[in-house]
Amino acid sequence: MPASDGDYLVDPSRLDEWGVGIYIRARHDGKWGTHDLAHLDRDSVTRWLRRNDGTAERVVLLVLFGPPGRVLELEQALSEERALVDRVDMILALGPDEKPRTD
């Protein structure tokens, strides 16, 4: 079954490759997680770049033409987004009687 527009998949052969620091919610071995864009399969990267919300366009323009300080702001925002996604993943993995940590 082909993946939907937001259903990004990891290419296991790319996991040992360098990353680009852009983290995407994607599936690996059937489990959702946060993965570097460079670790996705070609179809997933293409679909991410063609999204209509303008994120990919803004990221590329910022990296290529933005002042260095703005790139650092982007890296911080992506890091915060990754932390949020990781927290959501942790909460989703809890059993029905478990409660998430609040620290």
Structural summary, described in words:
- The protein has 103 residues and is α+β, with helices and mostly antiparallel strands.
- It has one domain.
- It contains 3 helices and 3 strands; from the N terminus they run βββααα.
- The protein has a 3-stranded mixed beta sheet, sandwiched between helices.
- It is globular, with a radius of gyration of 15 Å.
- The relative contact order is 0.13.
- The model has no long low-confidence stretch (mean pLDDT 77).
What labels would you give this structure?
103 residues; single chain; 44% helix; alpha+beta; three-stranded mixed β-sheet
Show the helix and strand layout.
Elements (H helix, E strand, L loop, with lengths): L7 E2 L13 E6 L2 E6 L5 H8 L5 H11 L2 H26 L10
Parallel strand pairs: 1-2
Antiparallel strand pairs: 2-3
Give, in spatial order, the strands making up the sheet with the most strands.
1-2-3
Largest sheet: number of strands, sense, barrel closure: 3 strands, mixed
For the record, the count of structural domains works out to 1
User: How would you describe the shape?
Assistant: globular
Low-confidence stretches: none
Separate helix tally: 3
Total number of beta strands: 3
Termini gap: 40 Å
